[in-house]
Amino acid sequence: MIATCGSARRSLARAFAAPDAGPVLLFVEGAAGLGKTHLLRELAELPGTPDVARLWWRCGADGGRPEPVEGEVWREPTLLLVDDVHRADEDELRRLRRVLAGMEPGSAAAVTYRPEELPVPGMPLGGSAMTYPFRLTVLGDRLAPWDEDRVRRAAAEVLGESCTAEAVSALRERTGGVPRAVVDLLAMLREQRPAFTGTAAEVAAAGVPARLAELVLSRTYAVSPAHRPLVWAAAVLDGPAARDELIAVSGLGAAPGGDALLRALESAALAELGEGRYGFAVPLAADAVRDTVPGPVRQDLHRRAAGVLSRRQPVPWAAVGAHHRAAGEYRGWLRAVEKAAESAAASGRHQEAITLLERTLATPGIPPQARARLAPLLARNAVTGLRSDQTVEVLEQIVRDADLPPAVRGELRLDLGLMLSNQMGRFAEGWRVLEVAAAELREVRSVLAARAMAALVTPYWPGASLDVHRGWLIKAAAAADDSGDDAMRTAVLANHVGLAMSWADPEAWDLVERLPVQSTDPACARQAARGLCNAADSAVWLGFYRRVDGLLTEGRELATRSGAPYTEHSASGTRLLQEWWTGQWLGLAKRCEDFVADTADMPFLSSDAYVVRGLLAVAQGDWGEARAWLSQRGTFGTENLPVPLGATAAGAVIRLTLARQEVADAAEQARAAWTVVADKGVWPWAAELAPWAVEALARAGDTATAHSMVRDFARGLGDADAPAARAALAWSRAVLAESEALAEGRSDGLPAAAETYRKAAAAYAELPRPYSQALTTECAARCVLAADTEGAGESAAAGAGEGRTGPAASAGPEGPPNPTASAIAELESCAQHFTDLGAVWDATRARALLRTRQPARKGRPPGRPSHSDQLSPREAEVAQLASSGLTNREIAATLHLSPRTVEQHIAGAMRKTGALSRRDLTHRL
């Protein structure tokens, strides 16, 4: 697993390149563990040198190699491999120098050594200068630690799927990239029980490999007891430190400390890691040394380390706190933790602050005063940053503490409510907690009371109606004005933007313009960023896709600049929704999956990505995957989805259920989903649900409820400027008209339904929404073709022999346009659009409908075409849908075939491809 040095291979190869080539001597320098012996083994296998003798010389082993007769080694081409020359005594070095001086052309030698253990620094062959022959080429090479990519490859070989980026980074940091340390630590991780899962914490807790521990302890205890505290000081500081810092922590004083540092460097117990910075060559070695320091001495070292680090600029407060705690100074520890968290939050490192505060507050015995200071700091960082389940658990415990001051409890309850709602997706609990917080804070802290009320303005959660949110807006605005706090006013304005945009308030865009995006106050800037991203999200649901880019770009830049990672991530979800609706599907599934992986510790934040990925799976015919994605893969209850997203997911599920001919179930799903939207009263959010819900109820025979849905949808929209909802309303009306015409057997009602579908398609084209446009155009063509079929049947007896060649026949050159021919052309265009988007299921369905209407192609011989061992077009379509996971009944409904015919086509496809099962058919295709 230790890499060969390519330059060493090339250097030695020169000696054997030609018969008269001069000898080559290669010195290879490398600290302990960098792989010198392994390199020599690989050089022994030097390609292209089958006639070259290999001779090993292991220095320090049984007194070294006996002195050969001068010239004996070089009678034939020889490769001399000298290992660990730093171990050789003076007699052995003298013999080795004599042998190397006698090298003849056609021979070479490689000599390895540890530079830190040479008796005379820089002179691997001892203090006596060697006389090198004139023709001898002397080269030097230096082995280096592995970089992160090489550590990753080694880790992947050992850890497999547990080889995470986090683990690789921790491995590289802990081992310094020293190959031997990497390999040994990986072996320890592989044997861990429970099994290693890929976290940095597991790497840190794995311990020190025995080989490394023995090496560093032998070097440490080679230092005299008087000088040893300086090595202990380096172990306690656990990182590169300046000379004066090491001496101060050791407590030795200037002169003895300086002497101790020299002795530690001479024994290789410590190394110079950079100009004027000293420590252990392998960072992990510090753990082994620190564990051997007597307890009272170690506490004194930690106390002095806390003082030394407090004088650095900037002060590493987290490390200062850790030293105070290790020294038993708990008051100093808690003060340093508070400063560390404040510093991290100020620079936007919220997750770092959260982790530190969680760990601290989870410690038993924290004094109430300290809890009252640290808990609000944790809550504020958690609301701004990303999810932590442990944060919620800690806050839930703390708010039950009767000793907390009421103002502190109210603030903690506020942040807990925000986390439950925004980060955890537990809306019902979050709403109740926020209502209590608003009541608790009303009398004690007006700013925080306004913040709680502002949170209750946000309309996305299921439950409270639009009027309830408007009522909280009035209260929040008044409280923010009373507080005189600009950041609080901006927070209320940001939520006002989201509320107004959601129901298409005509003043919404003016409110967006009022957001203080140029504010130099980070708190105001974070709230303004949130307002912009709220506006972008609402614009997506309303259908203003061309405005979304500018809002998202400005909002994300402002969120990054002001340190609001939660806002940044939510904006990424909005972008995925926009790409879905505007037809930017190339690579969209991968982008969704990557986003889900990136936010794995906070699945609610990636709910947009789950839904978009599910919608793609529906269109692609991958229905098993579709249901899994639309249900958020079980990460949390879909009943807790934001209302517009929940309505969208419900619409897709209803569509799937209808495609499977489970009409009664689809109708029940439609009623339940519609109730959620109707209770909320934000009618633009019904856009992605309405067409499918209306179809489900109409097909189930509940036309009264279907009419009521369309009527309520239209009334709720009123004059609102909501383009996507307007198009969906036209689609819903067309669905109702088509369903009633078919149910009543009135073909004369189908052209009107087709015209309404075309109005919807035109509206979607304006947005633009190519997929929805193609779906509604397909529906319009279907209505025309159905009306033509009915008309042809009614006139067959009376008009037989009138020269009509089929339903697709076009009008004569002077006749009126033929609606059927236009519908077929529309259907062909739809099939192509579906194909271009990647909507496999839709394209297959459209082409199946086309084949029921198109006449046989001219020039084809009579009878069924022969496809021998090639799949026929119909077999290919059936096989493709079968490999996507559709059942025979679902394929039959899509392609207008009988289940028996589908079964025959699948059997034919399996026979021709050699597939052993439907699953195997996927790979064969």
UniProtKB/TrEMBL annotation:
Residues 795-813 have a biased composition (Low complexity). Residues 864-925 form the HTH luxR-type domain. InterPro entries: P-loop_NTPase (IPR027417), Sig_transdc_resp-reg_C-effctor (IPR016032), Tscrpt_reg_LuxR_C (IPR000792), WH-like_DNA-bd_sf (IPR036388). This is LuxR C-terminal-related transcriptional regulator. CDD domains: LuxR_C_like. Residues 851-861 have a biased composition (Basic residues). It comes from Streptomyces rubiginosohelvolus. SMART domains: HTH_LUXR (SM00421). The lineage of its organism: Bacteria, Bacillati, Actinomycetota, Actinomycetes, Kitasatosporales. Pfam families: GerE (PF00196). Keywords: ATP-binding, Nucleotide-binding.
